[in-house]
Amino acid sequence: MVMAPLTRNRAGEGLVPTEMNVTYYQQRASAGLIISEGSQIADDALGYPLTPGIHNDEQVNGWRKVTDAVHREDGLIFVQLWHCGRVSHSSMLPNGMKPLAPSAIKPAGEVYTYEGMKPYETPQAIETSDIPRIIEQYRHAACCAVEAGFDGVEIHAANGYLLDQFLRDGSNKRDDQYGGSIENRARLIMEVTAAVCEIWDPKKVGIRLSPLQPFNDLYDSNPEATFSYMVKALNKFGLGYLHVTEMGAETPGAAGPHFDVSSLRKLWNGLYMTNSDYDYASANKALKDDKADLISFGKLFIANPDLPERFAKNAPLNQPDPDSFYGGDAKGYIDYPFLEPI
Ligand code: PHB
């Protein structure tokens, strides 16, 4: 039972984890593994208000308190390394810069900023010569994760953020070695993974993909080919796990032609983690049917800090309150009750 990465927008000043964030993760340390909320690898990787960073000393010190607290409870915690790319806004970026993206294609819709919702801007296409700097930011964040005492890292290559924007052909129209063929569109993910694996034992590195997720206006003309290639290519690193979210499968065709995502498990030579609104019964069925080795739970872990115990005892579950998912205070964050001792 894994706690899925969950954006909660409650970091403190300087986007440093706070005492309240420490309590939140400590409360959930009975998960087999916690994957932290997405944490930006640099100032220009940020996409939303009050998401924590993992790239400077203050942030490392803040995260150190989180990892110490989780370890005191015998838990394990990976940090999710995040670059939001075009899912951002100049009002939140250094010197008012335009968000970075593979191509200058504006996503449909609006973005959540410190001043409320704003229309997306046309992002700036990353120069080929700027790509090594971005890979270096991942490497630096991976080093910060070591300093902060994490047990490993998850590379966020899902849900329409930068690495996913490169991978899918709806958002990547580049004509250099990072665009065009599937191999080229997968190149940044491969180079980032290689860089992270220079810092971390590959067995302590996971990666997350979301083949059918239309979120953040993502689309691919052939997701089955794109993601089959990606998964097979990633085998070469011997990573700790592949984390595939099935989210989007309920809106067939929105992210591109539909395919059976579970086919990816057969292409992967390691531990396979899946995710998408699983509950006790459906998760056990997926494990029994050998659809996955690990299941990550999101909303259920928000509302139930002691979810493993509740599953084990078949106890009633607290219901999550969506109004307090993103931002706010202790309410809906660290005040969900534990089971009463019997
Ligand atoms: C979100 O804030 O809604 C969000 C963040 C990261 C994800 C998915 C959703 O990967």
UniProtKB/TrEMBL annotation:
Gene3D superfamilies: Aldolase class I. Residues 1-318 form the NADH:flavin oxidoreductase/NADH oxidase N-terminal domain. Keywords: Oxidoreductase. GO terms for molecular function: FMN binding; oxidoreductase activity, acting on the CH-CH group of donors, NAD or NADP as acceptor. One of its GO terms (cellular component) is cytosol. The keyword Oxidoreductase applies. Signal peptide: none annotated. Its cofactor is FMN. SUPFAM superfamilies: FMN-linked oxidoreductases. Pfam families: Oxidored_FMN (PF00724). Belongs to the NADH:flavin oxidoreductase/NADH oxidase family. This is Flavin oxidoreductase/NADH oxidase. It comes from Methylophaga nitratireducenticrescens.
